[in-house]
Input
Amino acid sequence: MSTTAPIPFMRLTLGADDAALREGIDRVLASGWFILGPELAAFENEFAAACGAAHAVGVGTGTDAIALALRALGIGPGDEVITTPLSAAYSALAVMMAGATPVFADIDLDRLTLDPAKVEAAVTSRTAAILPVHLYGQPADMTAIAAIGRRHNLAIVEDACQAHLASANGRPVGTIGAAGAFSFYPTKNLGALGDAGAIVTNDAPLAERLRRLRNGGQTDRYHHVEFGVNTRLDEIQAAVLRARLPLLPAWTTRRREIGARYRQALAGAPIIVPPERDPGHVYHLFPVRSARRDAAQADLRADGIETLIHYPVPIPEQPALAAIPSLPCPNANRVCSELFSLPLHPALTDDEVDRVAAAVQRLSAADAVGG
Output
């Protein structure tokens, strides 16, 4: 049992953002304007600029962002959307919310994102879109996926919910396809103080339709021209995100520093560290693989180190999707039983990173798993 201070997986208490957050919230309270006001308009402009996009549309959650992006592109019942079996299930649930059917293509064992070859093999006459997920902050192979989209005339909606400020082969994620979906759930690289999300796009008519769809399909008050929903990023969360957005570049730099420090310190460790396949990786999480995950986590817990599993069940095996046929996904099935995540967040100190890495190095060689 460790006698040193424990290392929690994450810290969500306020830090350098404290004063700016309180100022932003007070500004909204004083204004008396809480929905679709100036804070949201300002945040949308600022977030679009940070993402290298022309437009951003704030919505209630990252799930809604995916579903509305698909709907705005005309994707719905009878359409198939190819996506990954390794993600939070909300990726696929969003496809279902749009009325379409998710089709799961297996992952690349290095990136842990969609394998382009498996995507191409999954294309049918019903395929309308591809939904790559930039999982753990590692961009999917967008060069190959975009080429598949062009060959088959498929829309691409990027799930960038874990990849704020990431880039794929030098291009900002979220801007490579028709639209990109972001989540601001409190644990994300840019987090709100509750649920929040946004869609970015370079397509002005698409952005205008998204603004209409998020607000009940209204063109103006009480005039509903199409079936929309009620999913608006509120003024207080917009003010919170505006306060934190200027800090995101430094937080991202720190995440990358920690990722690099882990990679160096874990060389030769009895676990598999998925490689960094793109320097645009933003290290939302730092997953590793172990053949004896439960034992490895127990040993680290005894050393005072908290780890978490992202994600233990492949999406096609979730009961909520049991009625949807799935292609074989052996890589995803394998890693879901092996992956767990080490602590990584901007407040983590170098000493803490070194302590975690040293504890991982002490794990039994029996915990190792072949690539």
The chain has a mean pLDDT of 96. The CA atoms of residues 116 and 144 lie 6 Å apart. The domain at 18-245 is CATH 3.40.640.10 (Aspartate Aminotransferase; domain 2).
